[in-house]
Amino acid sequence: MKATPRLPDLAPDIEKFLRIPVSVLVGENDTGRGARFNKSARIDRAQGQTRLARAERWVAAMTAAADGCGLDTPAHLQILLDRGQWAPRPPRLAISVRIILFVIIHLGGSTGR
To answer: Domain range holding 85?
Structure first.
């Protein structure tokens, strides 16, 4: 995250972000690469080639980042057996909730509204 014209004073507090509890849910068979799936080689190398792999890597990255800040990470991965992709898309939902909560906590009414 970075400052924008609408939020010029935005200065992310990574430790606050990493303190937000999160559970990522993903189906064990969520390995498809449909039309809406980002298949760029750069993203595949960094994040993995399936939603399952990306969920695993995201939780590992959040855990490592929290550990690096001396925090007991609240990031958990729950792999749902016999499930593929299902609505709502759990990893996206979990990540979105974490980001929304981070913004609420970080801005804490300081938007001037």
So the answer is: 14-107
Taking only the tens place, the pLDDT of each residue in 2-45 is 677 887 887 778 888 888 888 888 888 888 888 888 999 999 99
Distance CA 106, CA 84 (A): 34
Residues in contact with 97: Cβ distance below 8 Å, sequence separation at least 6, in sequence order: 22
Q: Is the pTM of this model over 0.90?
A: no
Is residue 9 in a domain? no
**List of long-range contacts for 46-53, beta carbons under 8 Å, 24+ apart:** 51/26, 51/27, 51/85, 51/89, 51/91, 52/26, 52/27, 52/28, 52/79
